[in-house]
Fold each of these.
Amino acid sequence: MAKLLPIGSLLALALTCLLPSLATAAVPSDTIMSSATKGFASVANAKQLEANWNKTQMGHLVKDEAMQPFVADMKRQIERKLSDTRTKLALTVEDLRDVATGEIGLGLVAQESTRAAVAITVDVTGNAPAAQTLLGKIDQELARRKAKRSDVTVGGVKMAVYAIPPQHEKDIAREAVFFINQDLLCATDSRAEAEAMVSRFGGKGQSLASVKPYTTTMGRCAAEADDLVPEIRWYVEPFGYAKASRSLAPGEELAKQGKDYVNILENQGFDAIQGMGGFVNLAAYGSFEVLHRTSVYAPAVTTDPTKYKLAMRIMQFPNAEKMPPEPWIPRSLASYRTFNMDMQNAYQYFGTLFDAIAGYEDAFKDVIEGLEKDPYGPQVVVEKDFVSHLGQRVSLFTDYELPITTKSERFMFMIELKDEAAVAATVEKFMKADPNAQQKEFQGKVVWEIKPAQEEIPELEIDLEPAGEEVDVVEDGSLKPGAMSTSAVCVTDGHLLVASHLSFLEKMLAAKAAGDKLSDAADFREVEVTLNQLLPGAVAARCFRRTDEAYRPTYELLRQGKMPESETLLGRLLNRLLTSPEDEEVGALRKQKIDGRQLPPFEMVRRYFSPAGIVVRSLDDGWFVVGATLTKQGAVAKLGEASTGEGAQVR
């Protein structure tokens, strides 16, 4: 699912970065897009969008002269990753910028027994000469590709239809169709879809605007937004989009992708998620850098209380009126996420998903029985000794160590417990059965340190870094931060803590002793108040993020030329996004395309980043999400607290 979820926001990002000042479209694009549209993005009034983008700190950042190499590369790579319209239609986003005077819509349309079609609509009201000039430019480019043009009329609308021969050995024959009707310039790589679009101008055929998941998600966002008109709208039918996207991929590329997780999730009942969509506004109300609302439509498919089938039944996230951070959570974090989950229910229905991923029946059962009966194992009854004692509150924290390396980002899971003593006893059994685990004590707490498994044959590593950079030891002989990360586990004060780094767990316990509270931080309090105003009432999840601290590790790795090696959450997402067909093979390490040495020190750009947050509410038929990034004036300027600490700033 991770690959499916970001597509709407990524389409929106591409349009946000590259589109100009536009007017409102006369004919809504969703009435022309097919009901088989699986991914859709639209900018309704890009003139206002552009103006508001320029008001944001991010808008100022991308204009900073020192950032231009990065900005130019991101624009180029995102456009290539999201849309291959230059290859398909001899059309670029810059071309659209020059002719549009209203809404621009982009859709991916599934077609039976053939490749999915790309469909584009552009309002060119009052700009017909420029639109005709663009069509002439396209004609010249396709003639250069030796395309055969046919002029046809369908439903009284004149179309230019091009048959484009393969351009290289691995290419395929393509179609490209262009027409203008009712001041809307339309382009698609399918004649059948072009003819269907013409029919929808006349009200014939089913459009995206008639699809229930689409209308439901858009309607909920509109109801919550009140009078705030969205500058960007997006919609995705997750599994339909995945299949449509796959229809565009070469067979050899699909063969390299390995296990089919999309098919696994669909067969495990996750296709109950029929659609998701959202609204995005920039510089809204003068208090937000970004304000976004997202609706996920997943109606019940059974009368069972869990509503769903198979592993989808684990998706039970109870709402709660209050979800304050525990008073000992340290204030110096990059991000804090917390959510409610029915853990016993999740355990009960997780097995079929585990089996599907493992590839054989009873795989989960065999693992659980091994933990119970293996004479060399922990010999615990997982459900009775562990799962039954878990509460429903789960939290995740992140920060980082200095100096920044590819392993600097640290994270920790925390699970609320019903019976601390029982879980502590079970954890002790698990740890004693692990030859890499070692018990130690920190500030009166029992901590289990888990060292990386040793290689059977140690490899000789030669450090080729210049002297003075990334030394493995410090003066007291201890390892530098990130040199050899050891994870850690601790059961304390009614919670199970599992950390990626022992140092992070020790920081958490030390903060508890010092009374250093996240809940006392002014930026955290302001985000909480804001989110409570945007979505008052009970919610299932809350997220707080200091965007400067959250983005710093990835930024510093860019400067070091090591971003493709990044193991940060953001770095992994960007590497997946920016991997291009020109990389040597699917999954190959992406080559960094810009010279990070040109970027300014992070402290020079920190001012552009503001605190942000998200809240999620569980509904009878899905979930509703509201998120916001605050303005500097609304957040940071009020803080007045000095920054301290080893990584994340103390606010």
Amino acid sequence: MKKIFFKALLTSSILMGCTAADNTQSNVTEAATAVVNATVVEQSKEQLLAPWQGPFQGVPAFDKVTLAGLVPAMEQAMASELAEIDVIANNPATPTFENTIVAMEKTGADLDRLFTYYGIWRSNKSSSEFRQLQSELAPKLSAFSSTIRQNAKLFARVKAVYNSDEVKSLSPEKQRLVQLKYNSFARNGATLNTEDQKRYAEINLRLAQLHTQFGNNVLADEENYVLYLTKDQLGGLPESIITVAAAAATERDHDGQYAITNTRSSMDPFLTYSTERELRKKVWQTYYSRGDNGDEFDNNAIIAEILKLRHERVGLLGYKNYASWRLEDRMAKSPENAIALMESVWPAAIARVDEEVADMLAIGKRQDGIEKIEAWDYRFYAEKVRQDKYDLDSDEVKQYLQLNKLREAMFYVAGRLFNFNFTEITDGSVPVFHEDVRVWEVKDKTSGEHIGLWYLDPFARKGKRSGAWATTYRSHTTFDGKKNVLSSNNSNFSKGAAGQPTLISWSDAETYFHEFGHALHFLASKVEYPTLNGGVRDYTEFQSQLLERWLSTDEVINNYLVHYKTGKPMPKALIAKIKQAATFNQGFKTTEYLASALVDMKFHTVDPKGIDPDKFERDTLAALNMPEQVVMRHRSPQFGHIFSSEGYASSYYGYMWAEVLTSDAAEAFAQAPGGFYDKEVAAKLVEHLFSVRNAVDPSEAYRAFRGRDAQVEALMRDRGFPVKIKTKK
């Protein structure tokens, strides 16, 4: 009744208008509006904090939650967790594994659920309203984290357990949990004096604001720069790309035109096929200038401040630079080891670029009379070389790469390796946050046991961050009753026209498999405690990179790569060309990646006082003899991996570290009697490399699978680079 009354009151006030004689009515209206708004906020807050209902142990209420109550919900959830933490910290009983470590694992359930919604609004459905709330929440979340990490009583209890005799009698999994808990405090300021702890918290607070601003600036440039083409500017573009561009223009109220958006999924194919060289240059410059346009969204000053604050913070802990602190508990252990790996591959990569450029220039001179290959020419003429050397047309390959068929192929691989079965849920019992999202139930094929759910959000749209990623809404645990997995894959494919399949490139298909590898890592988990579902950055990409290898297996190619019009399987001759060209363009791919990884590491191993990020990037690349025809995969002002959070900061090298593991593990399958579907090797893969998550040290886990450490020579063979033969002294 209250809602109806206030609605009627508001409506009547609007109809009557408001004059000087109506001040009383105006005051009543304002009061009524305030009460209505407060009611909306309160209801939204309650829904955001509500335990998940429905099937599958409860699922997120994506169809009910709203932004209205986000801030008060976050504040209440943080307060609840701090109260739980205080109970543990002030427990008069002697610290034990159960009353301290396990008790901590049980805290924060409300906040965990809330972060699921927060993550969707941040990554999949961003808006100006959310970004404003995000900016408001960032410092509060940072302060919340610092309050826990700097709780002296809590750390004293964790430290007591860490040093106790009890630890020696615990299982290896529980011992690792204690170690990770202790490190999460000791490496994040818990051992500092009061004054330094205060400064540490201040730095984290400011970094949270800067990370948020950096990411929002990149997203703004992606949304604000769209190139609209007319029909006479479509030279060289395949019909599939034209159709997608037309749909993108229509979506943005530019009917009759063709939109090239400022995202990789739109930029990459345009640069590959467009015969309009000046337009290629414009698209290239716009894309690689994100966050670097000297305007309100420029990120250079933000980068400089981030680097200085990170350096100061680890200095408080006694580390010489940020990278040394970050890599201490990674597989690489030190920046020197990571740099050594990258520099061992770099010379072969840039030498291959020289060869690729020479091949491209020969064609460019002959066909178009150009005298130099520019950066915006690389993809275009690389495609020409591919056709010339291997008679392989990327657009021809694309006709066999239907998004839905590739998804079925991934399910097939998951069935063969993990014994998983995927069944789509179509009865509406599992809410989704956008009409494009679909959901599958995952079961064990033999026992029928429910494993979890898999959400898929495949298409690009306004408000969705670029790239591809995987996440979980709930991870597997057993310590407090078995919890099943809610996993998610997210991509930015350009949606095909209505009624037409979405066709993607071979590279995009590899990315599709890659991200599904992360989902399988989530779904295969057998760990007992939440913390053990975390990962070691230079290891967690390994499982997903490895899954890319199954895209090119005969079983997948022969059964799922069928022509979108005829339904006929990919011809054997085309398959042979794809496999023959497997190492094609590796100079470009390896160099653009390594350039980003090396610049990231150099940023985080120097004293950043007075640093000019643009100049530092240029000088670092010059010192590396970076080929002028190639640009970093992620230039610094748009390098969200390392500047919109600390997830990959001084850790982007991890993709290559993981690639060494990937290449080595792939050879284990290739040499097995059953090839990539060998049951024995697959069982070891699941047991030692997927199901244990972070319950086992990654180096030990890999040795359990392979019987030895990984060897870099496998990576060099994979990329077609020269392999130096080791000789005994």
